[in-house]
Amino acid sequence: GKIVVSNHYRWQIPDTIFIPFTPPILLLPPLSFLTFTVLDPGGGQILSQTSFESPSYINTNVIGEFVPEVKSITGLPNGRVSVLVDMYYPTDTALFYYHKVFAKRAVNFILDDDGYLHDFISYAPQNADCSLQSVWQISNGGQILLVKDSKGQLILFGIDAAGEVMWTKAYKNPLPTDHS
Fold first, then answer.
1. Model's pTM, two decimal places?
2. E strands of the chain, at which residues?
3. Cβ neighbours of residue 13 closer than 8 Å, sequence gap 6 or more
4. Model confidence over 79-100: pLDDT tens digits?
5. 17-55: pLDDT as tens digits
6. What is the spatial distance between Cα 49 and Cα 71, in angstroms, rounded to a whole number?
């Protein structure tokens, strides 16, 4: 019964994190933000708004600029919402503001009925980057994700309403181009 609006934006100015008893931490631009706004369908009032900041890609393995791209927003049977995003995901073990190694992943933000993060799941083939190409909804909140790995191989992930992988199937891409 609620409306979820997703928005992503970039800042071209630095951001600062303040943590008690530590010096301020400067995050260098460009910075990417993904925001989810939950609206009351009756009157349009904002019920909640949550933003997730991607770490800065400055001085990392990410080449160029990249803005996370929302590919699908799906209501789940338990009242939660699945937001599937194509984005860079940190793969090192550093703290949020120190990440240096990222990999492209399909990421599932599962939001509760108030729009707050309930679960955060990333999907990728073993030891490979991937790009989320498309998403199809199936029964009982399940979804099928089509991803393309860094070598152009196409892979399907079948996930349930909780975001758990139920099955995978890989296909050789008959048109191994960047846009196939």
1. 0.85
2. 3-11, 15-17, 25-27, 31-39, 46-53, 69-75, 81-90, 102-111, 117-123, 130-137, 143-149, 154-159, 165-171
3. 29
4. 899 999 999 888 889 887 788 8
5. 888 998 998 888 888 888 888 888 888 888 888 888 777
6. 20
